[in-house]
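Morning, I've got a small favour to ask if you have a moment. I owe you a coffee for this, so here goes:
>
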Amino acid sequence: MTDNAAFIIYLLESSACMIIFYLFYRLVLAGQTFFMMNRAYLIATAILSLIIPLFSIDISSANQAIGYYMLNPIVVTAGSGLESAISNLSFTDIILIVYLTGASLFMIRFIYQIFQLITIVRKFGISRNYGINIILTDNSLSPFSFFNMVFLDKSHLSPEEFNHIIEHEKMHIRQKHTIDLLLLELFGIFQWFNPFVRLYIKSIKEIHEHLADREVIRNGANLKSYMELIMKRSGGVRFFEMANNFNFLTIKRRIKMIGSAKPPKISFFRFVLLLPVVSGLLLVFACTDKENITPVEKVESISITTEDKAPETTEKNEGTVTKADEINIKTSAEKKGNYIVVDSEPEVDLTQLQKSIKYPEEARKKGIQGKVLVKVMVDKNGKPSKAEIISSDNQIFNESAVNAIMSCTYKPAEQKGKKVAAYINVPLHFRLR
């Protein structure tokens, strides 16, 4: 498997983990008033979604040998010189380009919002009051905090309302809510294609507002006047989405949570249900059955012969592929040493390989030729599970060779009527005309 393909699979597995974790949150935890626990859950599971696909746990139970076969050389010749860089792009390359383009656009958006904030600070200046930095604006922005800075429009606010907002935003600052938001915003760049990241961000903002509201009330704010303030400031413009805006939540939900009673202790055990979820994700994405394969390169009981006839070729602009000759293998059901001689050897779809392999454009321009030997394991379903460069005259050919081999379909080996895994060594000779 190429690095590009492995990265794309990692992205998809990481996204799947985040989706499952969020669904668990919505079904089991959302609506509960364990706000600090819910906050910890969302941040921890976001990080876990990145870590779980990186684990590799071997769950194989028995030592199983595997067949090891060598194909005859496959010759790849350079085309007419009309090849373009695009023609050499694999499907995974195109997917990666699309991903990087999207990530770059979201990163630009992130940087632009930071510059917007810097512009506001420079325009209105900073005053130090109540132990925090306050930026008083002259427009109808919804109050919000970012690290130790509070942005608000003081007009149309009574002294009591102003104090309530300051206390509310100070709670965001004390509990370092900005760090949560920036972390999830970075997740949003890394997984810009995953809509559940946006739901994570929305949920963590809701929790932040509930935490701040609860602390303001606990510190002695008048409940009635505070609720009136929430209704009054519900229509302000949310200028900076990467911050905790005072009017983020709907009025109905916010007032409901402010008036909620302390939750019963039994609700804590909802978090225990997370254990089977994490275990299941580890089982699906981290556990692999490696079958304890011990390949042997020299198989004395197998003889390889080729037919004495000219190779079949196919001419195309992107190059010519000489098909490998027939491989005749003397087989038996006998297990010898660390390998198995199977009843039916694995086969590669040479027609598909013809279409997949490309002569690297850079090598063609520089007049470079060379040989690459690739070892690929074909599983019992006929899918290539991994490829490894055994030897290479020049690294310039490696990616083209691996991409082509991993994109092919195979006929799996068979032993006693059952399909089994086997290695194939594929020699590729890259030659200029």
